[in-house]
Amino acid sequence: xxQLQFTFDSTRTFTNQKCFIIATFDxxxxxxxxxxxxxRVIKQHSPELRGGYTEPRKELITSLSIPIACDVDRLAxxxxxxxxxxxxxxxxxxxxxxIDQRIEGLYGL
Length: 109
Prior knowledge:
about 50% helix, mainly alpha, single chain, 5 helices
């Protein structure tokens, strides 16, 4: 897999220096960060590593533009993310596509 992923951790896992920790339970933010729209920005502005991996830098992550979504959109995206979490990432393609479409709409794409 050449794409990094953001995830939700409720087990208090320890990480190494290659991880970012955002101390919030915000499923909308999780869906946004894993969307194809945000990943295109991350890949475009991050150094590429051997094997096609991307290494996002703190400066890039903290400067990402996070669109303000109305309550209806936030809830819809959060619910789709929760479905993916409940399914442990298996068979989530249609939910992920819907998340991507909703995020593109929030960015006006």
